[in-house]
Please model this.
Amino acid sequence: DQQVKQNSPSLSVQEGRISILNCDYTNSMFDYFLWYKKYPAEGPTFLISISSIKDKNEDGRFTVFLNKSAKHLSLHIVPSQPGDSAVYFCAAGGNNAGGTSYGKLTFGQGTILTVHP
Amino acid sequence: KAGVTQTPRYLIKTRGQQVTLSCSPISGHRSVSWYQQTPGQGLQFLFEYFSETQRNKGNFPGRFSGRQFSNSRSEMNVSTLELGDSALYLCASSLEGGTYEQYFGPGTRLTVT
Model:
């Protein structure tokens, strides 16, 4: 049962354009969402996060949008750069079964982003 | 500040053997989580340790175990290795128990033959 889904395995974008990566979740107990970037042979790198009490969070070229009613979040990268080419993972955390699970993240399958010069 | 370190980076083991992987968190971080990454299953949560206690556990068999020491360093052990245990094992640390933001190490690539 995949509680966090990234339905697009890959995305190709031209340099300078906007990249939009999408993520859906099913567990309504999730209350915190994160995006990670991963290069081959490295661990995931934290990019940006959002709490369920917000619907938008910005950090430089990266903006995350959260639509709680649709259980959907997206990551916007503007403008996209060739160095952004990597695998992007969406992750979710939250109270599960009444307990606090700060150390447990549920990840999507990842989206491979390729930014062409 | 040094990042999360994991040793060894690469490991080849034979089916039936056991293996121990080590993780040193970022200085000051007290929570350590372990994940398994495989091409088919993605990143899956194994367990989390906080203040030397296992606080959360994922859906993995009992062959997978871990522990945390008083200096927050953590180890995970896999006994009776199976071919399907071949994966990238990632360790992540976070500042305290009350944050979701985790910082990952480079991982240990385990190959079981």
User: Anything to note?
Assistant: The CA atoms of residues 41 and 87 of chain B lie 10 Å apart. Chain B has a mean pLDDT of 93. Chain B touches chain A at residues 4, 31-33, 35, 42-45, 48-50, 55-56, 58, 90, 92, 94, 97-107 (CB under 8 Å).
